[in-house]
Amino acid sequence: MAFKRIILLTVFVLSALGKGEGNQQYFRVKPKDTDIVEGQSADLQCHIGNQAGAVQWSKDGFVLGFDPDIPGYPRYSMIVDERRGVYNLRLRGVQLDDEGEYQCQVGPEHKNHPIRAAARVTVLDPPGIPEIEGYQEGDIVQVGDTLTLACITRGGNPQAELIWYRDNVQVDMSFTTSGREVTNIRTFTVDKTDNNAVYRCEASNSVTYHPRIATVKLSVQCEYTLSKTSY
């Protein structure tokens, strides 16, 4: 009889533990760091097991609320399947200011502790169309002049790569960066072979399918161009 009581007591204790700490709410799927191309959409996953508390998301510490429609954020919504414990955050038409840390938060309930899971969203975008400074079409330079061409592109995440070409042959470069602006400077001494030479600057990163391009065609004053002009 005593043996049966011990067994029943053991079963009772195990059952009580199963309803307590053993059944705490937990994340079946946590949100993951996500790269999203600007203008596209994505879902941040959040699946909860043994859910007891209410669920909401936050962005950079600012809570978005429990309403799945997320008032005030027309491009955000929570895709909910309560039966399966799914509370995914959908971001539509992503913009640069959507970049940040997002956190799925499950509140406390009864003996369940609150739980949190965070992920970083990085917004990718192509670089802007480059601009060439230091020379404009129609300018004339002299043989022996020192010419500095600066190719500048703004924006772009990841940072843009700029490459100079002279008549389709890649030439040397000197990079400078300032925030989301990248500059590639080409300095050289002008000679007569630069007359009608086309300098092309290409800007690209992992988001661009085709480089963004700017070109300039040089006009160099030399005996050949002068004779042509006089004619």
Keywords for this structure?
four-stranded antiparallel sheet, mainly beta, disordered N terminus, 2 helices
- Amount of helix: 10-25%
Calculate the terminal CA-CA distance, rounded to whole Å.
124 Å
Specify the overall morphology. Answer: rod-shaped
**Which blocks of ≥5 consecutive residues have pLDDT under 50?**
1-21, 224-231
Q: What's the main sheet like?
A: 5 strands, mixed
Which band does the percent of strand residues land in?
35-45%
Count every beta strand, where a strand is a DSSP E run of 2 or more residues. Answer: 20
Order of helices and strands: HEEEEEEEEEEEEEEEEEEEEH
Provide a count of the helices.
2
The largest beta-sheet arranges its strands as 2-10-9-5-6
Mean pLDDT: 86
- Tell me the radius of gyration: 31 Å
Give the helix/strand class: mainly beta
What does the model show?
- The relative contact order is 0.14.
- By secondary structure, the protein is mainly beta.
- The protein contains 2 helices and 20 strands.
- The longest helix is centred in the first third of the chain and has 18 residues, at 2-19.
- 11% of the residues lie in helices and 44% in strands.
- The strands form 6 sheets. It has a 5-stranded mixed sheet with strand order 2-10-9-5-6, with no helix packed on it. A 4-stranded antiparallel sheet has the order 11-13-17-16, with no helix packed on it.
- This is Irregular chiasm C-roughest protein like.
- One of its GO terms (cellular component) is cell-cell junction.
- It holds the Pfam family I-set.
- It is found in: Membrane.
